[in-house]
Amino acid sequence: MVRFLKAGDKVKITIMFRGREQSRPELGLRLLNKLAEDVGEIGFVESSPKQDGRNMLMVLAPLRKRAAGDRPAEATEVETED
């Protein structure tokens, strides 16, 4: 996960609850919040943890933008004299 954030990519974290785990979603929330704190130096929470049926989802995004070489080239205008 750290590798993707350092590369400038977003990361989607999914926790799947099984059986009795579904009755304790606060444990999953605590785990995702701790994870967000741990990667706070290189990323931030773009989408806060949300319960979606049996799953809990969170999206992290990098703090810095991608390197200049990773972006698509922008079109440049060339001036011509008449």
From TrEMBL:
GO biological process, one term: ribosome disassembly
Pfam families registered for this protein in UniProt: IF3_C
Recorded GO CC terms: cytosol; membrane
Keywords linked to the UniProt accession: Initiation factor, Protein biosynthesis
Claim: Protein biosynthesis is one of the keywords in the record: yes
UniProt cross-references to InterPro entries, sorted A to Z: T_IF-3_C_sf (IPR036788), Translation_initiation_fac_3 (IPR001288), Translation_initiation_fac_3_C (IPR019815)
Keyword Electron transport: no
UniProt-listed Gene3D superfamilies: Translation initiation factor 3 (IF-3), C-terminal domain
The Translation initiation factor 3 C-terminal domain, residue ranges: 2-62
A GO MF label: ribosome binding
Family: Belongs to the IF-3 family.
NCBIfam families documented for this protein: infC
PANTHER family: TRANSLATION INITIATION FACTOR IF-3 (PTHR10938), TRANSLATION INITIATION FACTOR IF-3, MITOCHONDRIAL (PTHR10938:SF0)
Protein name: Unannotated protein
Organism of origin: freshwater metagenome
